[in-house]
Amino acid sequence: MLEVLPLLSSALILGLLGGGHCLGMCGGLMGALTLAIPPQQRARRLRLLLAYNLGRVLSYASAGLLLGLAGWAMAGSPLATALRVIAALLLICMGLYLAGWWSGLTRVESLGRGLWKHIQPFATRLLPVSSLPRALLLGALWGWLPCGLVYSTLLWASSQGNALHSALLMLAFGIGTWPVLLATGMAAERVTALLRQRGVRIAGGLLVMLFGLWTLPGPHQHWLMGH
Length: 227
Prior knowledge:
Structural class: mainly alpha
Protein name: Urease accessory protein UreH-like transmembrane domain-containing protein
Transmembrane segments: 12-37, 57-75, 81-103, 135-157, 163-188, 200-217
Number of strands: 0
Domain Urease accessory protein UreH-like transmembrane: 11-212
Strand content: under 5%
Low-confidence stretches: none
Keywords: Membrane, Transmembrane, Transmembrane helix
Oligomer: single chain
């Protein structure tokens, strides 16, 4: 497991850097979920928010396991290399989107809207939230909301050729997105305002693009690892 620790750190940082995108994609939903908590449950807001996000992260890990099995089946084949290249290109596109320089990645998100149309009615039936299990299940459904950042990270995780590692990477990525969405749910205006700043978005976008370049197979990886 020691060899996967640097990758887990990368996945965690990727989730943190993508906080601005999570805010745009899920911030409104996070606020809506918070407002949906019945008045008598307000004292339990933090626990319910944690349950929402735990369910969401577990759904990411489940998707990582499923796609990781496909990546494992392709390990060592030309398809595995192609998968890694596609994942790297998507990460570069994600960096461009986070920096506000190109929004073409939003077209990728449209691929998951068909599935979300079938899931959304079940999620709606769980409102208003009245218990922790209900919040956990709602979060698990919410984790399938179409998101270019999740898709690009999922492809990167699945390209590792190990289903367990893929699941752990998606788990780490999901944990990295927690601070922003918890802050949004608790109405932490200062945190969300910071992540909306252009300089922060550009810095995050550049780092994600560099990560995408590092993911691309090639001799440059050996040079980067040597330094």
